[in-house]
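Figure 2 data, in text form.
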Amino acid sequence: MEKVRIETAQNVSIDFEIAGIGDRLVAAIIDAVIVCGYCFLGMFILLPNGLSTRLSAMTFAVILFYAPIVFYDLICEVFLDGQSLGKKVMRIKVARLDGSSPSFGGYLMRWIIGLAEKYGTCGFVALVAYLIRGNGQRLGDLPVGTTVVRLRAPAALSETILVETADDYEVHFAEVAGLRDNDIDIIVQVLDHYRQQGQSWRSEQIVVKTAEQIERKMGLELDWDPLDFLKTVISDYNHLAAKES
């Protein structure tokens, strides 16, 4: 399976699997089924109930109802963090090569070029670009610096540094519940890297920058030791996850 290396804001390089053609095709089929179902529903709702139905009103209703179909990919990727419903099912998503989420402008440009790729060439140009580039990028990805990657499974308790917590463990940061699986995955990799590399300057800087980013995401300003903070976040996460399971 081909991989792409993404450099995160914490200066941590993570290898993600590039979403294969099969995954993307199945996701596209799922999206097409959803769109078709929406179309049939629209036809059923908008069918005139009598000859007195005004054409102008009918035209307006059709445009109002079917406009989301044209903007389906854009709407989904903006509000579902780089995923359409089909991508969610297949656990793949659009991601920038620098590890950050695309901006609205990025999604918009990707969608506009995607319309030309999809309807202008029936996806042929997108397929050729995918095969030539080797990092999962189609033409719409190039100016935005994005690709489509396969998501990892959410971090399990057995995959974290601190696996178990006592029953009477007291959670220090309730804000950990607002972190994403990807944030926890990055913390785990940073701690694992620190454990393997020891107290080198680079590994310590990675820990410091990661702690700063996680604090910012959690809305905190702390005077904790960065390493202790990250370990505590993982412990809190493990304890909350164990209570939910």
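Caption note: Strands lie at 3-7, 13-17, 92-96, 146-150.
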